[in-house]
Specification:
This protein is mainly alpha-helical and 465 residues long. It is built from 19 helices and five strands.
């Protein structure tokens, strides 16, 4: 017993003081996926990093396994194309020299790579020899680097007002035969929490394979262009430094979050505790708020889809399009927040906030009418249950709730009777032009009747001489 006590150590640390940056999705989040348990966290066409082992656990000959293996062979094509584009590669004999240099760099980084993964992944799976880990990182890193550089070139061409059609001179097009939506699925797979490699691997390969006129900022530029079709809202323009990025999902998280210092109301701990003690659990649904006099409006020119504002009875929410990739994207962003300690959990807070607003079809209709939620989900899915499906078992912190000030303002506004009376008046008598005209006509008749009565009585008591 004493030996076990003395030999005990915190799980996942070992002899490394480096904090992991790539985690496993908590099991409770996977079980909460009602119609496809765990499927929103698993790759469809390409395995990256630790999920590489998933391929060989599948039954031989299965369609899913063959689909994943096809892009595994294509990763070698990406490595070949990156080496071929190298400006200093003048002789074919230097190809192996450059390839071996990249492999040695990966092997040197293996301890740091293992330390980047949490317990139960590359850190503790002894079945992976260092050489196999280095080769895995080399291929996955080249695959990602190839896509980032390709989309960085597209971004540069678009900035100059040109077309990027001439840039498609690689073998990407050969992969789409029989799978026209392949590259959209690849983009989706690159934003899965468990389907990541450390960003310093991509940076190291870039240093080995870059041309002299290429700066490291191309990696961020290419990533933002690659994920442009998946962004929930216009990404803010604050620069993202490569040193601050842990992996691709983290880079995307930084690009869609609120810019530093842009939180609406920084409350002291005492003010926050006092406010939370007076508030109910979150806020009512959209229909109830509308009946209480709260108006909804699509927020324009927002820096992030999280940038919700409330002023003078108007709740402004940036537009969010719900499509078939939205659930996977938001689930993995939330899972990242739930596993990585150095986050503000703003996306988790936003998702729970929207779950409170949308509790029925009528709530969804109100937000859709104002252009806040745009439903592109397939017919099998019920749109108003979207947020309740992704927020089950999600933990959020009241101390880090960036919407606490807004919730307090909404709650105070809806509890004032005059706002409810005004909303009822507008809803019952001024909801459409015909009702408004009828009310005005009735008022006009009433005024005329009062005037007629007044002059009749006046003439009786003071008849004309």
């Amino acid at each position: 017993m004493l030996e076990h006590l003395c030999g005990a150590a915190p799980a996942g640390h070992g002899d490394s003081t480096q904090q992991p940056t790539i985690y496993m999705v908590p099991q409770e989040l996977k079980l909460n996926s009602s119609y496809n348990p765990g499927g929103e966290y698993e790759p469809v066409v390409v395995c990256i990093g630790n999920t590489y082992t998933k391929i060989y656990t599948l039954p031989p000959g299965s369609h899913y396994r063959q689909s994943l293996l096809k892009l595994e062979s294509y990763k070698w094509c990406c490595a070949q194309q990156l080496i071929r584009r190298h400006s200093r590669l003048l002789e074919p004999a230097k190809t192996l020299v450059l390839l071996h240099g990249c492999f040695r760099s990966m092997k040197r980084l293996v301890p740091k790579i293992r330390a980047s993964y949490s317990q139960g992944t590359l850190k503790t799976l002894g079945a992976f020899p260092d050489d196999e880990v280095a080769e895995m990182m080399l291929l996955d890193g080249c695959f990602i680097l190839h896509r980032l550089l390709k989309y960085a070139s597209r971004a540069a061409m678009e900035a100059d007002g040109g077309s990027y059609d001439q840039l498609d001179d690689d073998e990407d097009w050969t992969q789409v035969y029989g799978r026209c939506g392949l590259w959209q699925l690849v983009t989706r797979d690159l934003l899965l929490l468990e389907n990541q490699i450390p960003f310093f691997v991509v940076r190291e390969l870039f240093q080995q394979l870059k041309n002299e006129d290429e700066a490291e900022e191309l990696l961020v530029t290419g990533a933002l262009r690659l994920f442009r079709s998946l962004r929930p809202q216009m990404m803010h323009r604050s620069p993202i430094a490569c040193d601050d990025v842990h992996h691709l999902l983290h880079l995307f998280y930084l690009s869609v979050g609120l810019p530093p210092g842009d939180h609406q109301q920084q409350l002291s701990l005492g003010q926050r505790d006092e406010l939370l003690s007076e508030l109910p659990q979150w806020i009512p649904g959209a229909k109830e708020l509308e009946e209480a006099g709260v108006r909804f409006r699509k927020r324009k020119n927002a820096t992030s889809f999280l940038d919700v504002r409330f002023a003078r009875g108007v709740l402004e929410i940036p537009q969010l399009e719900l499509n078939d990739s939205s659930e996977s994207l938001l689930r993995n962003l939330i899972a990242f927040e739930q596993t990585y300690p150095n986050t503000t959990r703003d996306i988790s807070t936003y998702a729970v906030f929207m779950d409170c607003l949308v509790t029925s079809e009528e709530d969804m209709r109100i937000l859709d009418l104002h252009g806040i939620l745009v439903n592109h989900l397939n017919s099998r899915r019920v749109a108003w249950r979207f947020f309740s499906a992704i927020t089950g078992q999600v933990h959020w912190s009241t101390e880090e709730n960036y919407l606490v000030g807004l919730m307090g303002a909404v709650d105070r506004y809806r509890n004032r009777r005059r706002h409810k009376w005004r909303a009822a008046l507008v809803r019952n008598y001024f909801s459409n032009p015909w009702v408004t005209m009828s009310v005005l006509a009735a008022l006009l008749l009433l005024v005329m009747a009062v005037l007629q009565t007044f002059f009749t009585v006046y003439a009786y008591f003071k008849p004309p001489k």
